[in-house]
Design goal:
Length: 247
């Protein structure tokens, strides 16, 4: 897919289709698509259709011809990043870059050393922003499957997630830590990989012990220390390359 992507609730079959609403407005008024140009309709769940613009009307209506409908299977191994809550808008930055890179799921985690805490309406708004960011980044990066952004998890819930993974790792910031390097870890070709990114203050000893008990060993990325908003992207890229998903 190289044409611009627009999201629909359900991908239509071959024939004509009217794209309207916010996506139609974006296509007509922002992208300024006109007759004969190509676009893609996708549901974010793997199903997508190659289309050609027939007519553009007003500011938010585009009639397209649906030529081919495809369904991309979920890729393996599935990569999930458990992301400790960063300060400010760095959480959205993390979600955006991980989505562009190819992560399959993101789990917000309220680590004990997180300065930011999601509570009440503030938490609901923050989660909605993360999900909207994943959707928009999925469109921009021409993905047919957008990453799932889960409900926030506690440390206990994260430990249960790690226990069920085929490979689980906690990214450790100490380059002198006796843990191994993620670059040389034995990774599965299928199943699930879960990577934990701690907050700026690091994963606490209690959290590290809980995760190790669940089967997640600490691993280092490299000699430099990455911020919590970039570590997940770097780790995802490394795993995508090592598992062959980028081949």
């Amino acid at each position: 897919m190289t044409a611009p992507v627009f999201v629909v609730d359900a991908v239509p079959g071959p024939g004509s289709f009217l794209l309207d609403g916010p996506e139609g407005r974006h296509a007509v008024s922002v992208k300024r698509l006109r007759e004969g140009e190509e676009l893609v309709l996708a549901d974010g769940l793997g199903r997508w259709a190659a289309c050609v613009v027939l007519t553009a009307e007003g500011k938010d209506q585009l009639t397209v011809r649906v030529d081919e409908v495809h369904e991309d299977p979920a890729e393996e191994p599935r990569i999930t990043v458990v992301q400790a809550l960063p300060k400010g808008d760095r959480g959205e930055l993390a979600v955006e870059t991980m989505t562009e890179t190819g992560v399959d799921a993101v789990v917000p985690w309220a680590a004990s050393r997180c300065i930011t805490q999601w509570k009440g309406d503030r938490g609901l708004k923050a989660l909605a922003k993360w999900r909207s960011t994943a959707r928009e980044a999925g469109k921009q990066s021409r993905r047919s499957r957008f990453p799932e952004v889960a409900e926030p998890m506690t440390t206990k819930q994260v430990a249960a997630l790690l226990a069920g993974a085929d490979f689980a790792a906690v990214l450790h910031e100490d380059r002198d830590h006796p843990s191994g390097a993620l670059a040389t870890a034995e990774l599965p070709a299928k199943g699930s990989i879960v990577l934990v990114v701690g907050p700026e203050g690091g994963v606490s000893p209690e959290e590290l012990a809980a995760f190790e008990a669940a089967g997640a060993k600490p691993y280092r990325l490299g000699r430099s220390v990455l911020r919590t908003s970039t570590a997940g992207t770097a780790a995802t890229a490394l795993v995508l390359g090592r598992t062959g998903r980028w081949s």
